[in-house]
Amino acid sequence: METLIENIHQMIKQSNSMDSIDAIPHSDIFAKSVEVEMGIERHEASRIVNILKEAHKIFFIEVLKEDKAKDVKRIVGFVDANLETIQRLRSFFQNRLVEEYQAMFKRKLPVTNILKELLMKPASFKNTLLGQIANKAMMLEEYENLMVKESYQYTDQWKKEKQNEIIHQMKEEEQRVAAAHGEVREAPKGPVANVNRRAVDSDQYKEFAKTSQNQSAATILKIYGIDFFVRVNLRKYNFKLLADLVEKGEFRRRDDLKLMRGMLQRVKSNIGVDSKLEEYRDEIARLEKTLLTHLISGK
After folding, report:
1. At what angle do helices 42-54 and 156-180 cross, to 10 degrees?
2. Which residues are CB-contacts of 64 (< 8 A; sequence separation ≥ 6)?
3. Is the pLDDT of residue 223 over 70?
4. Are 254 and 298 spatial neighbours (Cβ–Cβ below 8 Å)?
5. Is pLDDT larger for residue 256 or for residue 203?
6. Beta strands in the chain (DSSP E)
7. Cβ partners under 8 Å of residue 246, min gap 6
8. What are phi and psi of 77, to 5 degrees?
9. How many other β-carbons are positioned within 10 Å of the β-carbon of residue 85?
10. Of 277, 240, 242, which Cα lies nearest the Cα of 256?
11. 183-198 pLDDT tens trace
12. Is 86:143 a contact under the CB 8 Å cutoff?
C-alpha cells in the first residue's frame, strides 16, 4: 500500500507543479486518471487520498458543494502540503482572481477587496469559476498560515510517522471487522480487548449516556474529560453538537482543539467504509472548518 500511496502523491505533486488554472487536480477527474493509469477502483483512490490528507501530505480545497436536490456531487481539489508549493499556487490564484474579476466587472481591485466583496454575497458566486478561484486563493492563504504556525506537523518525519500510524490503525480495524464476521477465529490476547474497546461499548459509556439525559454538554465535558466526550460524540455522529461547543468557547485550550481535529481526521478516513458518514458530510465539514478557524485565529 505504501508504494501506491506514494505514486498517487506524486501524481498530485506533478499537477501542482504547473502554473495554470488546472494545477490543482479535482477529485472527479483525478479519480478517473488514477483508475486509468494505475488500474485501481475509485473508492480505493478516495481512501488513499484521505490517508494522504490525514498524514498532512496534502490539503483538500472544496471546489463544488454537494447539492443532493440537484444531484450535484461534492468535488475537492488536492494540493501538496509543501510550503513552497502552497505559496506559489496562492500567488498564482490570487493574480488570476484579480484578472478574472477585472474581466467580469471591468474594474481592478486588490485581492483583499475582491475576497471581502465575494464573502458578503457568496450565493452569487457559488459554484462559479470566479467563486472557485476565490476559494482556492483564500484557502491556499489559510493553509500557508497554518503550515507556518504548525510547522512541526508538516515535516517529513511527522508525515511519515503519521502515515504509518494511519495504516496500522486501518489494518487493525480490518482485522476487527474480519473477526466480527467470523473470518478470523483466533481470540485476541489479554489486554488487547480492553485497549480496542470502543468508547460507546464501555461500562463508562452506559453511565455517560444516563448522566447526559439531565446534564448540559458543558457539565458532561467536565465530568468525563475531553477525550472520552469527543470520542463518544464522534461515534454517535454528533458533529453539529461539537461544532456548536467549539463556537461557544467550551473548548478553549489549543491542545484540546488539536486533539479533536486529530480524532475528526480519523473519522473522515472512514468515509467510504462507514456509509452513514456520507449523510453528515456538511456537518463534518462545518466542524472541521470551525476547528481550523479557531486554531488559526488562536481564539
Report:
1. 130
2. 72, 73, 74, 75, 127, 132
3. no
4. yes
5. 256
6. 58-64, 75-80
7. 257, 260, 287, 290, 291, 294
8. -105, 155
9. 17
10. 242
11. 443 434 433 333 334 4
12. yes
